[in-house]
Amino acid sequence: MKRSLLILLVACSAFIGAITGSIFTLKYFDAGPAYNSIEARQNLRLTSYTADSLRYRTTTPINFETAARIVTPAVVHVRTVYGSGRFSLNALEQYLNPHARSSGSGVIISDDGYIVTNHHVIEDANSIEVVLNNNQRFFAKLVGQDPTTDLALLKIKAHNLPFVKYGNSDTIITGEWVLAIGNPFDLNSTVTAGIVSAKARNIGILGDRNNLQVESFIQTDAAVNPGNSGGALVNLKGELIGINSAIATSTGNYNGYSFAIPVSLVKKIMDDLLEFGMVQRGLLGVQIADVTADLADNQNLKVVQGVFVRNVNKGSAAEAAGIEAGDVILAIDNHVVAGVSELQEWVARKRPGELVQVKLLRRGLEIEVFARLKSFEGSETVHERETRYEIEGAQFEDLSYSKLNELNLDGGVQVKKLEQGKWKTAGIQEEFIITHIDKVAIDNVKDLNRAIEMKKGGVLIEGMLRGQKQSIGMEW
Questions:
Q1: Which residues of the chain have pLDDT under 70?
Q2: In CATH, 286-372 is 2.30.42.10
Q3: CA spacing 20 to 30 A to 287: which of 209, 235, 243, 348?
């Protein structure tokens, strides 16, 4: 009898433990990424994925339906709000009646809500709204952005979303059929078809004060118009091969040429933003130019393709590797580089501290050297964006899981200490817990930092103080 009672007690304890664990896991499922590679996440979720049996590179008939069906549900409408910069006592009214709006596209790249779009789509926005293909709406966090590649990573609180699997932009060929999917002129889920017209195009649209911009676009003739920016360029298997970013036009509308950021670069930038909140750029540290027929004649070169090294920066990875002015870079890690755009793309896929093999032509002889890349600041280590716990006269702290559980919250940031500043002026008190800023969930101090970075003018702060919900408008 006692033995039966003991077995029953053990079974009941195990059952209660399993239920408690399940509830806890579900509650904090979106507390933060347990991975730092989107591609690894995709592969994990696609272990049972089987490729369509269609022959994708074929003559006739050409089938666009499979790719369109797979990708369309995962392409979203990105709407941005730009405030007037003036504070309103009614912060909610100001939020609902903003000064200006614009829109573009985005691509869901993970089942738990990570979205890639263009930097220029969300640049300087006060808030970002994402509308799914089924008309569900979410306010998105800006995880990180990179003007030098025109990419940004967003996050919405959602699960089991359709997403677009990464393809391989290195293997696409000129003449291959592709689809562009986005929201031109606010027309949701528009699909257009075209071919790859060229690769590694530099069209001079990105600018950076440190000259670190990377332009190595896939050129297509798929129709792309305003609103398509940030949308998907996919192959006939429905795999992402690029993010549509620009058009060549004299009118502002499509004139026959469109340009996409290759997914091989997108993957690296997304993982940097996911893991560090900022891009980790490895640099050779050289001043370069395309090898042309004229340059080859002037410099007495034996090649008419490659990248000519005009100068080597002091203290750079190139200098340490022995690269000299007058060298011609022919390949990086055994990948032939015909010009500057290709070299920049291959190097931009690397982080500081990574080793690259550089094939050079020097005075008619081919040699190989190894360079350990450095950051712009000259470091061989990666750096995470600093999280500030003291902002404008207020000190903040993350809430413990036990405190979140006690308050039945998914996340939040508590005001630990207040001094004179914007927060106190707005009427926020010590112990106030911030849960949302302009309707975007704030799970931790890192989220708070990111949210505040993009705010201008009136801001709506939502949270609770001693168990009571509060909404407070403040000017940022």
A1: 1-33, 48-60, 83-100, 248-255
A2: yes
A3: 243
> Of 1.10.300.10, 2.140.10.10, 2.40.10.120, 3.30.43.10, which CATH number belongs to 32-276?
2.40.10.120
| Ranges of CATH 2.40.10.120 domains, the chain | 32-276
Match 């200098």 to its residue by tokens: 319
Confidence (pLDDT) at 91: 39
Long-range pairs, 465-469, Cβ under 8 A, ≥24? 465/429, 465/431, 465/432, 465/433, 466/431, 467/407
The one-character DSSP state at 107 is E
Q: Please tell me the number of Cα atoms within 13 Å of 188 on its side-chain side.
A: 15
pLDDT value, residue 54: 47
> Which pTM value belongs to this model?
0.84
Q: Considering the candidates 111, 150, 271, 327, report the single residue annotated as catalytic.
A: 150
Inter-residue contact 287 to 310 (CB < 8 Å): yes
CA torsion sign for 53, 58, 60, 64 is positive
Q: Report the mean per-residue pLDDT for the chain.
A: 85
Residues whose CB is less than 8 angstroms from the CB of residue 363 and which lie 6 or more positions away in sequence, other chains included: 326
| The amino acid at 472 | I
Q: Does residue 229 carry a catalytic annotation?
A: yes
Q: Which residue is catalytic, options 120, 216, 245, 264?
A: 120
150 belongs to the catalytic site: yes
Q: Which regions of 215-337 does DSSP assign to beta strands (E)? A: 217-220, 232-234, 240-248, 257-262, 286-290, 307-312, 328-332, 335-336
* Helix 263-276 × helix 38-45 angle, to 10°: 100
